[in-house]
Each structure stands twice: as C-alpha cells, then as structure tokens.
Write a structure and sequence with these properties.
This protein is an alpha+beta fold. The chain has five helices and nine strands, in the order ααβββββαβββαβα. The protein has one domain: OB fold (Dihydrolipoamide Acetyltransferase, E2P). A five-stranded mixed β-barrel has the order 2-3-4-7-6. Strands 5-9 form a two-stranded antiparallel ribbon. Strand 7 and strand 8 form a beta hairpin. It is globular and about 40 Å long.
Amino acid sequence: MKENKPLQVFLISLAIFSIIIIGSLPEIQLSLSNLFGLSSNLSNIQPNKKTKNSDKKTETVKVNRVIDGDTIILSDGRTIRYLDMDTPETKKPNTPIMCFGPEASEYNKKLVEGKEIVIVPDVEKTDKYGRELRFVFLIGKDTDKIEQSVNADLVIKGFARSKSYSPNTTYEKQFSDFSYKAQRESLGVWKCPKPFEE
C-alpha cells in the first residue's frame, strides 16, 4: 500500500494539470486513461487517434522485445525510449554494466515484453538516435482499461531515476518527486554505493 501513494499523488497532479489545460470537464476520474484524454475502453482507441486534450497521438501497440530498463522494440520494428526517466546502463557501447541495470531490464521485461501497451508522446516525439519518446501504459489483464504507467512504476520502485529533457517536461516535477522518495527510502538502484556511475 505504501508504494502506491506516490502514484496517487502523480494521478492527482495530472488531474489538476488536465483541468487547467482542458478547462472544466463533466467528470474527472483519477485514471490514467481519462487524464491523457483516452477512452478507458481501449477497443475505441485507433492507432494515431488524436486525444481530446492536445494534438498528441495515442497508439495501442505490441511489444516485441525489451532492450533494457527504458527501451523497447515494438512488433512493427520501432524503438521506443521511455520519457522522463533513465535506468542504469546495460547495453551502451564501451560502457560497463551499471549497478542494478540488469534488475531494471528484467523488471521492464516482466512488465511489458510480448504485451499490448498504450504509448503517448509528450512534445518532442523522437530523440537524436531516432528512437520514439513515449509514456508507456499497461492494459489490464482481464479488461480493456489502462491500469499502470510503466515509466512512473520504474521510478517509484527504484529501478530508474527521473530524467527529463526539454521540451519534454510536462510531468518533470512528478517524476522528480518519485525519484526523490525512492532515493530517500534506498529502493533499488539507490542501494548501490555509487548509483548511475560507471
């Protein structure tokens, strides 16, 4: 129960942000699907369908394989790099494997590999390596509802640190708060003697 509290704070912050940006809505439910302007019934979401609150495009896609803790390959061959966070390196050329990197990769694999996910961009949609930058959400096992932010979960549980690059800073504060709490509680990578050092 304790580790769900940061996610609740994140959802409430997103709800407030949505109200400010979108204006008043008939009903605001604290679900990731509504906060991102998505239908909670994913059967209604079509690839590249525009969300209600911006020109951002949302897609339901399938994960082919996990590269590491913050990068995946989709079934159509596209590479997705998670937004607002960073996991310890395990695959970077000429870089040693960092402390807790394999654990982060394994946890990400457990979460998403072979599964359908929902991806949502922020402002800048690709990085200098051509990877697509996205928020990643899990779909419920027995429902068509979005249930979990993978990006946030990795940071909250200490598998990643918050890391945002302008102009993709919409939720920078929330992710920074998650990272600070995980570090304070010595979760995951924060148990390492020198986290994120080669």
